[in-house]
Amino acid sequence: MVTRKSGPLDAMVGARIRMLRVNRGMSQTTLAERIGVTFQQVQKYERGASRAGASRLSRIASVLDVSVGEFFESSRAGPPGLNSPVRLLGEPGALPVLKAYARTRRPRVQSCIAKLVESIADRTSGAKATVARLNTVDLGERRKFPSRG
User: Fold this and answer.
1) pLDDT band (50, 70, 90) for residue 87
2) What's the pLDDT at 2?
3) Which of these, 100, 79, 99, lies nearest to 15 by C-alpha position?
4) At residue 72, does pLDDT exceed 90?
5) What DSSP designation does 53 have?
């Protein structure tokens, strides 16, 4: 008997499901109700802990208004790693942060946001982060901000 264990492709498909669901502003509960499963099962699909069969993927694609192929779009490149854009966008809170970043049009502000987030991530992962890292903006880009007196 063959065991049906989820693998890297299941994790990539789950990350795509999450990214598409979040992008449409849909909750796990709403998706679950529309495809006939519990929200816990949707969580398992999104984490790659459970496999979604062909008919289930077809229902999910229909609800998310995409083709089934969208779930496999980047599978040719191999299993998703930690730096895979699909995997990263599947992380909780990643899409709203990226959307807010994109709304910021000033390059210096975007650079500072990126460095701030990197600094926070470095601190939480145990690496030493310094304020000096936040001050690495090119001198040509530096402008004095007006005071808010």
Assistant:
1) low
2) 56
3) 79
4) no
5) P
- Span 92-109, pLDDT tens digits: 788 788 888 888 888 888
Residues 6+ apart with CB under 8 A from 33: none
pLDDT tops 90 at residue 39: yes
Predicted TM-score (pTM) above 0.85: no
The pair of structure tokens assigned to 18 is: 């999450």
Nearest-angstrom CA–CA distance, 139 and 15: 39
| Nearest alpha carbon to residue 19 among 4, 6, 31 | 31
The residue behind tokens 């001198």 is 139
Question: What distance in Å separates the CA atoms of residue 19 and residue 105, rounded to the nearest whole number?
Answer: 24
Contact 22, 95 (CB under 8 A): yes
Separation CA 6–CA 53 (nearest Å)? 11
Cβ proximity of 52 and 11 under 8 Å: no
